[in-house]
Design a protein that fits this description.
The protein is α+β, with helices and mostly antiparallel strands. The chain is built from 9 helices and 5 strands. Helix 6 packs antiparallel against helix 7, helix 7 packs across helix 9 and helix 8 packs antiparallel against helix 9. The protein starts with a strand and ends with a helix. The relative contact order is 0.11.
Amino acid sequence: MTTIRIDQKDPALLAVSFPQNPDGNDLIRQVPGRRWSYSRTCWTVPNTRESVIKLGQLFGKDYCRFDEAVVRLYKPAATAPEVEQAVNPAWPPAGGAPLSKRTIATHPKPFRYTPPTREYDKHPVIVAITNALRVQQYSYKTLKNYKQALITLIRYAGAKPLDELTKADYQKYLLFLTGKKRYASSTMNVHINRSVGPC
């Protein structure tokens, strides 16, 4: 679920938050004027009708929870049931939201349809790292972040086993994350910690 509210520090911005997911980050980067706020620990976008429409198109209107102030601002004639639907949408949405042609063209695996990471739970590298982190009593959040970083690497490597990747392969992978994915430095640190180790 993506939450959209008027920012408390700056009413000219909307604060947008969603579960940590690289695909969600890829989607929001398509919103003009978006920025990651370290102090707020969420994304911010301009507080405009265009931003609201764009977020609804990218993430799926039925997958967004709008703050009541946002609904009242951009849809002042909304009825009480319409406001309630926007503020407290049913979860999971019945039937799902239809995909726009623009979303399909720009992002073939939309955020809300990204398969769960459980499909990688039995991968030998994931099992080994998960067990090692649990023995060392790392937090659940750290374990989750490292696991997601490894899944991204596994997807990037494709059929090639991770133990066969060279230092040059890892360097290309990190360039892919910064150039194509445009990951923030904090996210890159997790990927570097997990990726550089085998070299």
